[in-house]
């Protein structure tokens, strides 16, 4: 599993994370919810190595990740789908997928057919430039690129942001399929409450850089949880 223990993170004098501790287990979808600006993306940056912790630790599969660069964490099995997708707009869909080859061994440098089964539109657009895709198609491409790395855990930062409802359903089906068919861990940051309620096995709610609620997905309907999510 992925374990974050007593994590603190600063941007200069500003503290974004305050003693955060979470776990994401294999074969389960763990969702982190919260309003804008409460530190959700900072938590994922700490997990993926985009920003160093001030204190605390990140451990995955028995290996402490503190001090490891993002590419080294990818080799450990952490696949990252960043907020805003960050695909390469001038590369084709096929070339974007192939950028996921970097952390894997030569024998695994193929694009898994599962990607095309989950997102058939990508197969029909392999020669099209990434920047010419719609926002929803780019999100599917970003998830596909992470899958190319053969991750043990998939870390997604607000995959439904700015996406049309039909593609949100496709993304939800893909996440559920990956959990059920591969047993990988899924760590999902979201603001879309219904999306998490349908998918999550376990949830955390953040506020002002801290965990203020945790529990099974059904606890999202309690007054305590809703108090931390309403604007």
Automatic annotation (TrEMBL):
UniProt keyword annotation of Ribonucleoprotein present: no
InterPro entries assigned to the protein according to its UniProt record, in alphabetical order: AAA+_ATPase, ABC_transporter-like_ATP-bd, ABC_transptr_urea_ATP-bd_UrtE, BCAA_Transport_ATP-bd_LivF, P-loop_NTPase
PROSITE patterns: ABC_TRANSPORTER_2
Transmembrane segments: none
Annotated CDD domains: ABC_TM1139_LivF_branched
SUPFAM superfamilies registered for this protein in UniProt: P-loop containing nucleoside triphosphate hydrolases
Domain ABC transporter: 2-231
Keyword ATP-binding: yes
One example of a Gene Ontology biological process annotation: L-amino acid transport
Keywords: Amino-acid transport, ATP-binding, Nucleotide-binding, Transport
GO molecular function, one term: ATP hydrolysis activity
Cross-referenced NCBIfam families: urea_trans_UrtE
Similarity-based family: Belongs to the ABC transporter superfamily.
Protein name: Urea transport system ATP-binding protein
